[in-house]
Amino acid sequence: MIRLQHLPKPTELTDEVEQELTARYKKDDTSVWKKPYIIKALLKMSTNKCCYCECNITTESNYLEVEHFHPKSLYPDKVVVWENLLPSCKRCNGTKGDHDTQKEAIVHPVRDNPKSHLTLKAYRLYPKTDLGQMTINVVNLNDRTRLVKKRFKIGVELCDELENLLELITEYDNGTSTSTRRRNRIVETLRNLMKEGTRQSDFSATAATVILHEKSYSQIKQLLNNNNLWNNELNDLEKEVEFCALDVEDNE
User: Coil, strand, or helix at residue 121?
Assistant: First the structure.
């Protein structure tokens, strides 16, 4: 879970349209939130990901559902209020259901910074705060089959790739293989790995956390700096990774 970019409401969703759609919903339960301009804006807000679990919501099995942070069943006047709408996958939206977020708050992915409330350990989320604990419980963010196993797979693959990259840069550093091709391969490989921990990627919080807390990453960065291979693009990517990364739960 990462913090989402706040976007202004779609220009089509004027106050007049909002009132009209709200009245229609109250009258006959019409799904007035399923407007193409609303869906398009929500997908842009989250870069095509669920605001809670970060799975891709443009695939057939995880299609987008418009999530009403304060449930429309309890707060019908907020049915198309832009600040109440979020992009969610079917699983997270269904799991959260009609939980009353006015009475028992959870992390709001736009207003709140998830990293202030959640940490990661052994590919499970742990709370820093009561708000974090409520969020984990209400949205079931530690679903073993759907989420924890996926995070584990991402983490194992990233660790293996970082170890392989460390071997390449070590050979370059000690003079065993210093060709231009090897140099370019090292930089390109790290660039691609770091992109997995940026906002555009699925499960970016997991990937970013693994990257920054893996010892091999700091060793790779040091060797790149020693050989003048660390550049501005990698520096900018690292800032993006830091934005998405969670703290790691203390082992004690």
Answer: strand
pTM given for the model: 0.91
The residue among 226, 168, 163, 154 whose CA lies nearest residue 197 is 154
Q: Which residues contact 128 (CB under 8 A, 6 or more apart)?
A: 116, 117, 118, 119, 247
Domain spans, the chain? 15-106, 144-245
* Tens-level pLDDT at each residue, the chain (252 residues): 999 988 999 999 999 999 999 999 999 999 999 999 999 999 999 999 999 999 999 875 568 899 999 999 999 999 999 999 999 999 999 999 999 999 999 999 999 999 999 999 999 999 999 999 999 999 999 999 999 999 999 999 999 999 999 999 999 888 877 788 888 999 999 999 999 999 999 999 999 999 999 999 999 999 999 999 999 999 999 999 999 999 987 644
The Cα-based distances of 138 to 118, 133, 180, 220, 232 in angstroms read: 14, 9, 52, 39, 41
* 168 neighbors 189 (Cβ within 8 angstroms): yes
Provide DSSP, 48-110. SB-TTT--BSSSGGG-EEEEESS-TTT-GGGTT-GGGEEEEEHHHHHHHTT--TTTS----TT
Check: CB of residue 45 under 8 Å from CB of residue 69: no
Q: Are 213 and 155 in contact (CB under 8 A)?
A: no
Residue 214 region by backbone torsions, left for phi larger than 0, else alpha for psi between -120 and 50, else beta: beta
Structure tokens, 77: 């006047």
Q: What share of the chain is helix, strand, coil (3-state, %, to 5)?
A: 55, 10, 40
